[in-house]
């Protein structure tokens, strides 16, 4: 744990989570930045810009939410609605492997966005959640393996933006006060996204002399300072994350913890696909065949294609 001081020049922290704490305010936080990882994930799909931008926000939101939890397994964020973007899925392993994808009805999307201007920086329309996702729900799942109980939280997609929906989740499901800010930009070549999350520390971890009113005052100050962060600051590759935190909270004793790297990594494999195909009757695989008669399975996350001739399917049945 290191106290952030003026004059330091740490790395910009792209593709990482930086946990921090505001000593004087009784608040802990997470700062997430995604850069090349975002480009790698989005480049595998020919998403329209607004869909890519919303998925970029979902990826940095998922990373932020997962980083506030202690788990050994997989955190999944799922957004499902009745709009042109039917589904978005993001997951992050406890080792930092991040992936995500979207399912889009291109014709409906074109109709919805016809004559709707996009923000010059983010490439998102106004009110992106109701426009793109429509009515539906946001679900958070933590899966720590077959011998443990899965945790899941589900809330309605209630808000104009993903940040609004996350705040709705915090209000409905969390016992501790929380605040969050998201930002995304496309500069014509590359995507960048960032998030800041604050959580009030439990009363037991705060200074004993503080009464409830004083704790609330300090929390309100933290939220106001969070709100003062601009998208340009959050996304500036020349401004280290520590520098941003110092700029926002220099009066409040910012302490940074060990940075947690994030990487682009899908968990699909030939062995995993083999196991899935063994559970499907041979007659039901015909709709997956290409013109050459091979069964084709494509990973929705990374677009890797797995091909199976009849001899390969025979081998699965006898394995």
From TrEMBL:
Signal peptide: none annotated. GO terms for biological process: protein refolding. GO terms for cellular component: cytoplasm. GO terms for molecular function: protein folding chaperone; unfolded protein binding. The keyword Oxidoreductase does not apply. Keywords: Chaperone, Cytoplasm, Disulfide bond, Redox-active center, Zinc. CDD domains: Hsp33 (cd00498). It comes from the Bacteria. The keyword Zinc applies. InterPro entries: Heat_shock_Hsp33 (IPR000397), Heat_shock_Hsp33_C (IPR016154), Heat_shock_Hsp33_N (IPR016153). This is Molecular chaperone Hsp33.
């Amino acid at each position: 744990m290191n106290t952030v001081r003026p004059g330091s020049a740490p790395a910009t922290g792209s593709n990482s989570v930086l946990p921090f704490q505001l000593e004087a305010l009784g608040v802990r936080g997470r700062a997430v930045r995604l850069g090349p990882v975002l480009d790698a994930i989005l480049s595998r799909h020919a998403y329209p810009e607004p869909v890519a931008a919303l998925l970029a926000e979902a990826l940095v939101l998922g990373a932020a939410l997962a980083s506030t939890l202690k788990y050994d397994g997989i955190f999944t964020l799922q957004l499902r609605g009745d709009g042109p973007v039917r589904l978005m899925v993001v997951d992050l392993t406890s080792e930092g492997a991040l992936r995500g994808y979207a399912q889009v009805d291109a014709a409906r999307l074109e109709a919805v966005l016809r004559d709707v201007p996009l923000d010059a920086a983010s490439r998102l329309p106004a009110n992106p959640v109701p426009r793109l996702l429509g009515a539906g729900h946001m679900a958070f799942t933590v899966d720590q393996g077959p011998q443990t109980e899965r945790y899941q939280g589900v809330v309605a997609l209630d808000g104009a933006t993903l940040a609004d929906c996350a705040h709705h989740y915090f209000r409905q499901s969390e016992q501790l006060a929380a605040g969050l800010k998201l930002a995304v930009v496309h500069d014509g070549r590359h995507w960048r996204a960032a998030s800041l999350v604050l959580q009030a520390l439990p009363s037991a971890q705060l200074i004993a002399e503080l009464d409830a009113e004083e704790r609330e005052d300090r929390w309100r100050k933290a939220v106001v300072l969070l709100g003062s962060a601009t998208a340009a600051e959050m996304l500036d590759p020349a401004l280290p994350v520590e520098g941003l935190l110092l700029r926002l909270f220099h009066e409040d004793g910012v302490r940074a913890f060990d940075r947690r790297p994030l990487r682009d990594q899908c968990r699909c494999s030939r062995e995993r696909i083999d196991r899935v195909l063994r559970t499907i009757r041979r007659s039901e695989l015909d709709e997956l065949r290409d013109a050459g008669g091979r069964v084709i399975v494509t990973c929705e996350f990374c677009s890797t294609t797995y091909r199976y001739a009849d001899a390969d399917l025979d081998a699965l049945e006898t394995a």
